[in-house]
Amino acid sequence: PVTRAYAAVDLGASSGRVVLGLVDHEAVTVHEVHRFPNVPVQQDGVLAWDVDALFAQTLTGLGAAVAECGRRGARLEGVGVDAWGVDFALVDDEGRRTGPVRSHRGVGDPRPLVAARGIDESEVYAATGVPDQAINTSVQLAAAVAAGEHAGDGLLFVPDLWVQLLTGQRGTEPTIASTSQLLDPRVDRWLPQLLEAHGAGGIRMPPVSELGAVAGRTTPDITARLGLSAPVPVIRVAGHDTASAFAFARPVERGARVEGLVSSGTWSLVGLPLAEPLTIEEALAAGFTNERGVDGVLLVRNLNGMWLLQQCLAHWAGEDGAPVPLGDLLAAAGAGPGHEAVLDVADERLLPPGDMPARIAVLCAEAGRPLDGSRADVVRAVLDSLAAAYADALGEAAALAGCTVGRVRVVGGGARNAVLCQLTADATGLPVTAGPVEASAIGNIAVQAVVSGARSTVEEVYQDLTGTGSDAVTYRPRGERHHDDHPGGHPVTSSTATTSS
Ligand code: LFR
């Protein structure tokens, strides 16, 4: 029987990639066929995503996927697209973009727009599961409408825009739609009163399909450009990269001992999968968002991530006139002593691009954590702070969900950062399993393999994963900051990471 193949287009906020998933009787393997940087640009005076360049890179990647299928005698049965959340395009009736696709890194102060909405945050939270955050689609849309940007246009989130460019079809699915603060995640419906309240009552919201629906087939033009002999179905996978990254997770039960989730990429998303949104006041006060997952919702805190290090490296490269090797800095940072005092990685001053080392120095001073002036110490401050933020979010999510976190899973690019993973194990007092790195692409492929019938459940796809897609490393906590209910009950001092699958 022929090997079945699925292409995942995974657009991250710092880089994009196309990954080919091959599914035969026994095994599922994943192969990265193309990778490209994603750097926001100035368009019409705003910080925007370079959609034309990114889509051209996507087609290069899909072309490479088609060629790889040819070499391996595999049949391409689907394409799926996942991307970062909240940002959107406005499109006219013909589906043409009417302006730049703004980056959430360029948002202004949301407070006047939130005030003008005239609805309490707790009411909005109860309806959408999403707290007020500067990057929310809701306030970005209010700002666009207030600026006179095509109030009658249709809205498409980034993965939906890609699907439309590939198939000509307009629509969305629950995971990306739920990042907007405009959707009821219990029934996956838009909330017209909330759209009105943001001045966006005239915006045509995309119809919300079920997860896994076939959006359409590649248009004749795309089919020809990719060198395909026939159109290929484009599947509405979990379009939100976070939901794809956590596709393996099933909702936790109260009283259970569970695996805490960390998706560590440009952003860090930390929490637990739940069957239903948790919108009690305590969850709002603790800053948790409830966004749709492949199954149920993800109760996660949206925190800064590798963005902090990326921006530091970019700044130092500017100073030196040459790229700064992260590996050397991480080694030096990992060797240093570390601090109890940490900065708040969710501080909004860390959101926009810019001189990150200087901002970190300010926040460290505020936190009573003086820096020693070395770059390695800046990196260490960031990693200590991220690890502490992960531990804190996991503890609070568990308290809210009424369960105990017994181990931690880190997926995404941060899973490659051994210092961060070790510090996370230390800060939580729990074993941390890191990997897979390409979690979003794998979740994207997993949903396609299930809807096309190559596997009957998402779990089966993960069970059958072999090769790079299944790589995982476990870190044991060191030292005294030891969780009460850690299995074994005594500090584990070994810092050696062990490979497991
Ligand atoms: C992660 C992510 C987060 C979202 C942030 C901004 O890549 O999708 O979930 O809140 O990007 O879009």
From TrEMBL:
Does Transferase count among this protein's keywords?
yes
Tell me the leader sequence span: none
**Region (Disordered): which ranges?**
469-501
- Where are stretches of biased composition, namely Low complexity? 493-501
Q: For this UniProt record, give its keywords in alphabetical order, as a comma-separated list.
A: ATP-binding, Kinase, Nucleotide-binding, Rhamnose metabolism, Transferase
Question: What residues form the membrane-spanning segments?
Answer: none
Task: Tell me the GO molecular function terms.
Answer: ATP binding; rhamnulokinase activity
GO BP terms in the entry = rhamnose catabolic process
Cite the record's Basic and acidic residues compositional bias ranges. 477-488
Similarity comment text for this entry: Belongs to the FGGY kinase family.
- This protein is called Sugar (Pentulose or hexulose) kinase
Q: Which organism is it from?
A: Phycicoccus duodecadis
> What fragment of the whole protein does this chain represent?
18 to 518 of 778
